[in-house]
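P.,

For your records, the input lines for the assembly:
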Amino acid sequence: MDYIKQRLIEVGRPQAELVRDLIKNHGDMVIQDVSIEQVLSGMKGVVSLLTCTSKLDPQEGIRFRGYSIPELRDKLPKMKKDGEPLPEGLFYLMLLGELPSKDDVVFIGKQWSERSQGIPRHVFDVINALPLDAHPMIQFNTAILAMSTQSHFRKAYMSGMDKKDYWDPMYEGVMDLISRLPIIAAYIYRRVFHKGKYIDSDPSLDWAGNLAHMMGFDSEEVKRLLRLYMVIHADHEGGNVSAHATHLVGSALSNPYYSFSAGMNGLAGPLHGMANQEVIMWINDMLKELGTDDPTEDQIRQYTIDTLKAGRVVPGYGHAVLRKTDPRFTVQLDFGNKYLPDSNLVKVVNKIFNVVPEILENTGKVKNPWPNVDAISGALLSSVGIREYPVYTMLFGVSRALGVLTQLIWDRIYGLPIERPKSQNLDWFLNKTGMKK
Ligand SMILES: CC(C)(COP(=O)(O)OP(=O)(O)OC[C@H]1O[C@@H](n2cnc3c(N)ncnc32)[C@H](O)[C@@H]1OP(=O)(O)O)[C@@H](O)C(=O)NCCC(=O)NCCS
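Structure tokens returned:
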């Protein structure tokens, strides 16, 4: 057994014990009242999940195992002193709850590099069977499901493994899956947008750097951006659609491929991960309609008002939990202003940021008028040359694997049971309130 798994046992066993004790000794403690509005508005604020990898504060934003994004940029190992943190290090932190050393990051990177070589041929055949105009998320998700033929977890389960050991094959499957996603994503990108001219993986590169390389980008600029992108999109607590869907399906002891695929189906929704594609389309449509690459703030204001009048949302703005500017937006804006000061798209994003919050605030109904992670990510990708916006959500998915799959390992360590909330029909709600039909 390698030292990471050994460490996971040391860290995990006492915590699993605590969870059992919590249920045994305090299981009947009432922790929260739940209102009808909460139930009928997407369960916002209802504490109903145990997630240790990250925590989202409405005012401050995300912290990964206690560390904010600026702290991660400072403390996680990097390729170069002035570079961006490596996703390998964030994975280690989320998995074990402690900061990795450079050696830990090298170890994880080597593991992923070795495991990435085992993708079965049929996975590429299945992708190739899809039409070229199938959205990359369809191709990505199909490939994830096709890889489940290799599930360690399923094999271990069928062999009658003791359930307290389920975390082990789950860990193996998660490591395989994460290692292979860059190859799958780059394959789909090259298949759809570069006439199927594929580029071999370079095992000497880091996980995100290799993704850039296989997509056809060898500049330090793109690698640097993808490292940051992969870190900031990795996790957002347990209740967001992709994390919750992964957890829910995993609670039926579905293998990591089935579970992650469920999460990716959720990520493909325009209110969740697909918003990054929506944003860039919204900006492009605006520039086209206005007939300029350099719109004034008044023009953007009018276009935003027209979008709302048409009954559409302004993509990239608002959030189900956050009530301030998303720090994932801020760090990308800093990145854009520092490394891509001449990018016209970054300039437009800055102008949008100057006008949209006030307009959304004035609607009187939008709870959070501030930008989220998606308001700028596409502008940065496009500015470094990744202009094919249908792949943006897939790149988000590659990153999101780090968080939601780590959560899945911990679900198995904690021994969490099948999830099964109660539902009621409309009559029940009417009776409860005394309302008549
Ligand atoms: C993220 C989002 C889905 C959160 O939804 P939510 O928690 O229901 O948000 P709210 O409670 O603030 O919604 C209240 C109202 O404001 C609207 N609203 C919220 N954000 C809006 C936006 N960016 N543009 C226009 N209207 C918005 C909602 O559609 C809702 O309208 P309704 O009462 O007519 O149905 C929502 O803000 C949104 O659609 N944003 C745009 C898509 C996006 O960027 N998604 C990525 C999120 S990381």
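Two observations worth noting. The mean pLDDT is 97. Residues 271, 275, 308, 313-320, 360, 365-368, 372-374 surround coenzyme A (CB under 6 Å).

Regards
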